[in-house]
Amino acid sequence: MLHEVLLALSGHPSPLFADQNSQTDQKEFPLISPSERALLRSIGRLSELHRKLKSHLESISAAHPSIICRSVASSILHTHLARFQKRILDVEGKILTKDASLVGAYEIVPLASVVGEFDDWHRRMAWYWQIACFFQPLKDASREQQRPSTPCSSAQVIDKLRAETQTGFPDIEEAATQLAKVAETAWLKQLSSWIIYGKLPAFGAHDFFIHVDGPDGQSFSKDNDLLPTFVSSTTASSILFIGKSLHQVKRHRQAKMVSIAVSGGGSADADLAMAHLSLLAALPLPLIPSQFSRTISEIRLSLSQNVLQQLLPMSLTRQVLMCLRHFFLLGRGDFAVALINEAESRVQSRQQSMGRLLQQDPVKAMQSLSVKDAELHQALQQVWKALAAEDSETTDAVLDYARQHISLSTPKAGTSRPSSSDSFESASADVVSTAFNDLLVPSPTELSLSFSSPVDLFLSTRDVDTYSAINSYLLAIRRSHQKASDLWRRSPARRDHPVTAQDGNARQRNRKRTTATRKVWATLSAANFLLSETSAFFEGEIITGSCSHFQEWTEKPATNFDPDVSAASTVDGPGERPAQRDPETLAAGHRTFLASLTYALLLTDTIYTRELRTLLGNIDNMIAFFTRLLDVQQKLDLEAQDGAGESPHTVEAEQHTSLELDRARKKVDSGLKAVVNRLRQLDLQRIGSLRYLDVRPGEKGDFEVWKGGGGVDRLLMKLEFGRMVEGGMGTASFDLV
Predict the structure, then answer these.
(1) What's the chain's Rg over C-alpha atoms?
(2) Which residues of 387-422 are buried (b: 16+ CB within 10 A; e: fewer)?
(3) Which of 466, 564, 656, 700 is 20 to 30 A off residue 504, Cα-Cα?
(4) What's the pLDDT score for residue 630?
(5) Pick from 488, 493, 483: which is nearest to 531 by CA?
(6) What is the pTM of this model?
(7) What are the Gamma tubulin complex component protein N-terminal domain coordinates in residue numbering (predicted)?
(8) Residue 220 three-state SS
(9) At 684, which helix (H) or strand (E)?
C-alpha cells in the first residue's frame, strides 16, 4: 500500500483514490481502518491536486498567449513540482534504507509518519493550483455563462506574485518570491529589447505595455493596463521615450539625415548598448521600484548625452522656442498688429461684397460667410511679407523658420500626431473649452505649428494646441483693444465741426448727439482701459517673466551624472563638459512651463474666460452699432446740407441704431463689472501657494515654475489706480473696481 501511495503522489492514477467522494472504498478495501482511511483521504487530495496541477501547467506553458505566464508555469512545473517529486523519492529512500526517522520496530512503517512527511506541501500545492487557475481559469460547465475563461496578462501575473509575497506564510512567501524573480526576469528580457535597441519584443509583443500606434508603424504608445504596478508612470514614460528615440535615430540613420558624428559610431553604439545592458543586469530581483526608476533615468540620460544631443542640438531647440514665443505668445507685437489689420481688411471687403451679393443671390451670399483655408493662407502670407519688409536689411532666422512652419487655418477636429515628448506625464493645467478663436474672423481659426522629428522629441501636438489656444486668447484681447482705440481716431465722432451762427439746428443737433453718446464714450473708455491693462499685464508681465525664466533654465547647463554610476562615462570618459538637458527633461520642463503659463493667464478658470468672452463679443457689437450710428448721422448731416430735409427712413434708422447701441452699452457695462468681480474672487482664492501652479517636485533637475505669476493683485491695483487718476482729473470714468 505504501508503494501505491507513493505512486499516487507522483501523479499516477491509483485505485486507492479512484473517487474521493464515494463510499465504495469501504467495500473494496475492508481492511483499511477508519483512521487510515482519514489519513489516505488527505494524501488523496494532495495526489489529485498534483495530477490536475501538472496537466493544467502543461497546457499553460504550451499555449498561453503571455510569455511571462509560460515562463512562470514552466518554473512551477520543472522546478517547484520537481522538489515535490524529490520529497517523494526521499521518503521512498528512507523506507528502503530503513531510516529510523520513518521505519519503526519490526520494520513497521506507520502510515501517519508517511503522511506527515507531506504536511508542509498541502498549503503550497493549493497555492500553486490557485496561481495556475489565475493564469488560465478553468471553464466551469455549470456556470460557463457567468465565468469566462480569460487568460491573464503579464502585468497581472507580476502584480499577483508580488502581492503574494506579503501573505505572511514563509513557504508561500519563498515560492512567490522565486516565481516573481522568474516573471520579472522574463519581463526584463522583453524590456531590454525596447530600451537597448528600440525594438518591440520578438515574442509576446502583444503582451508588452508598449504598442505600435498607427498604420505606418513609426509611432508608439503605452498601455497602462499592461504596466506592472511597481513601474511608476514617470518611469514608464521614460521607457517609452528611450525606445522611441532609438527608433527615430535608427530611422534617421537609414535615411542618412544625421551627421557623421551620430551615424558613424558603430563601435560606440555597441559600447553604449553593452553599458545599458549591464545596468539592467545589475538590478536585484525582485525589482526594487526606486532602484529600477534610477536605472531607467541613468539609461535615458546616457542616451541623451551620447546620441540625442547631436540629433537635437540646442540651437534648434532655441529656435523653436523663440518662434513659439514671438508668434504664438505675441512676443513680436508687430506680428499681432499686422495679423489683426489684415484680418479686419479682409472681413470689411467681404462684408462689402456680401452686401451686393445679398441682393443678387442670398444663398450664395450665405455660403460665402465661411472663410476658406486658402484665404487664411493668403492673409498670413501678406503678414509675413509685411514683417519681412520691416527687416529687409537683416536676416531673421526665427522669422524664416516661422514662415516655413506656422500656418493659419480652420481647426481640424480629431487631429492628433503622436510624438516622443508625449511620453512624459507631468502636472498639467487643462485649458478651458471657452473658444476665443472665432473673433479674428467670423469663422473659427487657429495658428498652428508643423513639426517633425527630431523636434517631436520635446514638443507634442498637445503643446501646440495649448499654444494655439493662448494665441487666440491674446489675439482676441488685443483685437478688441485695437478696435476700441480706433474709434478715437475718428475725428467726426469725437468733436463737432464749426457751424455758422445762423445754423442753430446743426448746433442743437450736435449738442443732442454729444449728450446721447457721453455714456457710450465713458463705457468705451472703461472697456479700452480694462483691455489695455489686461493685455499689458498678460503680455508684459506674465508671459515675459515666465518665458525669461524658462529660457534661463533651458540654457543653463545640466549637471552630469557621477561617472561612477553613469553609463555615459563608459563612452565619453569623464563628464567634465557642460551638457545640455536631455530631450525628455526638456519636454517635461516645457510642459510644466506651459501648464503654469496657462494657469497664470487665467485660462484655466471657466468663469473668468466665459465672462471675458461674453464681454469681447458685446464690445464688438457695441463698436459695430456705434460705427453704424456715426454713418447714419453723417448721412443725416449730408441730407440737411443739401436742403432736402431729413428722410423718415434715415431718421428711423438713427433711432433704431441708437436703441440697439444703448442696449449693447448696458451689456458691456454689466460685462465689465462681471469680469472685474471675477478678478476680485480670484484675488481672494489665489493666495499663498495657490498664486502659482503647484507642481510636485520630481527627480533632480526638473523645472520649477516661475513664482511671479498667478496672482491678479497687480492687475486690480492698476485698474484701481486708473480709476483714481481719471476721477481726480475730472474726466468721465467708469467704476471698474
Answers:
(1) 39
(2) beeeeeeeeeebbebbbebbebbbeeeeeeebbbbb
(3) 656
(4) 84
(5) 483
(6) 0.77
(7) 2-311
(8) strand
(9) helix 648-685
Half-sphere exposure of 603 (CA within 13 A, CB side): 26
CATH 1.20.120.1900 domain span(s) along the chain: 317-728
Kindly report, residue by residue over 705-734, the tens digit of the pLDDT. Answer: 888 776 788 888 888 865 655 554 444 444
Question: Can you name the residues that pair with 446 across neighbouring β-strands?
Answer: 409
Query: Which single residue is written with the C-alpha cell 483691455?
Result: 531
How far apart CA 266 and CA 271 sit, in angstroms, is 9
Stretch 365-374: mean pLDDT: 68
Q: Are 213 and 219 in contact (CB under 8 A)?
A: yes
Interacting residues of 291 by C-beta distance below 8 A, sequence separation 6+ = 283, 284
Lowest-pLDDT choice from 42-46, 69-73, 126-130, 519-523: 42-46
Distance CA 511, CA 495 (A): 11
* One-letter identity of residue 111: L
396 and 437 in contact (C-beta within 8 Å)? no
**Nine cell digits for residue 351:** 462684408
More confident residue, 489 or 478: 478
Rounded CA-CA distance 25/32 in Å is 9
> For residue range 270-321, what is the model confidence (pLDDT) as tens digits?
888 899 999 999 999 899 999 999 999 899 888 887 777 777 888 888 999 9
State CA 169 to chain mean position distance: 42
Residue 449 pairs in a beta bridge with 406
Beta bridge partners of residue 407, listed in sequence order: 448
What does the pLDDT read at residue 151? Answer: 79
In single-letter form, the type of residue at position 418 comes to P
Measured torsion, CA atoms of residues 559, 565, 569, 573, in degrees rounded to the nearest 10:
90
CATH of the domain spanning 317-728: 1.20.120.1900
Residues 6+ away with beta carbon under 8 Å from 619: 480, 483, 484, 527, 531, 668, 671
Whether residue 228 has a cis bond before it, omega within 30° of 0? no
